[in-house]
């Protein structure tokens, strides 16, 4: 299997890289992967992951909730309840930050199409892109959405969109810097980029260390903090206009982390740690388990 070996930091170009911890793929393979960090800028990533053309098998498991609609078990039930709430919150955030009630929106990594459908119902013109054929088929069957494959990103004209959203997608994308350049090109001059990613400087990340479920190796290649994603955005001509915590993620990620550790009563223990994570983020939102970042083009 061909693997992606990173010899220079994608953020600052430094070759001063060091291994910081070993994480286990608890979903699909049981394999171990090394996390590396740049000694100069602190950016963290998963080393030697399967290349994009070969990583598909690591998503092929019914336990990978991002592309399943099962409600079996307490954690799945919580996931779907929170998703329903968050869909409304995300839609309101788009309207508020974009200063418009309708417009042209591109949702990258749309998964099974729930957010794209939500925005369509609110009057937006929506294009949706998704790598997984199974997820695209689900979106078509349940919402009538014609979701495009990843290759469609290169077919859109410059300045096609007022808003581009990536909800827990950026951490998966192999071509990190190329993606940011493409996003800038596809946005209008006053366009809005909204990116949600896990925060590896959160309370729950520090608590669980290598067992933190949001490291999700090898599917998650990049591990962002508020500082590193702001530096990455600046490098590609964006400024951070706002950032918002995702307080519910701390509960869900903590439950999964307890499950990965093989602990009994993982649901209850995860709720306890998630409560502490939530309180931590109340005082300092940059400690939230996941963050939503709002970027605008530099003028």
Automatic annotation (TrEMBL):
Keyword Transcription regulation set for record: no
Gene3D superfamilies referenced in this protein's UniProt entry, alphabetically: Vaccinia Virus protein VP39 (3.40.50.150)
Keywords of the record: Methyltransferase, Transferase
The organism's place on the tree of life at top rank: Bacteria
GO molecular function per UniProt: methyltransferase activity
CDD domains: AdoMet_MTases
Classification via PANTHER family: METHYLTRANSFERASE TYPE 11, TRANS-ACONITATE 2-METHYLTRANSFERASE-RELATED
Protein name per UniProt: Methyltransferase domain-containing protein
Organism in which the protein naturally occurs: Bacteroides faecichinchillae
